[in-house]
Structure formats: C-alpha cells, structure tokens
Amino acid sequence: xxxxxxxxxxxxxxxxxxxxxxxxxxxxxxxxxxxxxxxxxxxxxxxxxxxxxxxxxxxxxxxxxxxxxxxxxxxxxxxxxxxxxxxxxxxxxxxxxxxxxx
Length: 102
Fold this sequence. Notes:
This protein is mainly alpha-helical. It has helices at about 10-20, 30-35, 50-60, 65-100; strands at about 45, 50. The protein has one domain. It has a two-stranded antiparallel sheet.
C-alpha cells in the first residue's frame, strides 16, 4: 500500500480533472464533481457519504488510465481502507464501553 498523503478529496478531484483529458468519463463525472465539494471522509454530498462517492468513482473510472490514474486510485483505495479501519476501531470501542456500562 502506498504511503498515505493528507490531501483533501477536493484536491484529488482537481488532479483527476487535470489529468483525465479531454474530459472526465461520463459515468465518473458526477462522482468527481461530488468529491470537489468534499474536504474529507467526514463530509457528505447530498445523501451520499464520502465513502460512497469515492467507491462509486473507483467503480466507474475504468477508462482513466496511466501512471497518475494508478497513483490516485491507489491513494483513494488506501484512504478507504484507513477510514474503514478507523470506523471499525471506533465501533469496537463503543461496543466495549456499552458492555461495561450495564
């Protein structure tokens, strides 16, 4: 797994738009637009969580190729994994606290 940068989703979306020429693929465009409105995985776009938006982008960005595409997709996958690990750890702490409360 690559080293994780602390870039915002907004910055990553801007890089995607710069690299994916002449324009971002049709199915992925709404997700890039949504990521441009987000700073972190704590944000939402309409009813979608950042996790949902990034996952949907990765599922629809199959026509975006090249070294920049690979690096950015790896970065997004690493961010998803880190977010999932953090959420799982947080959930386990809540379960543990609830168990000792009663």
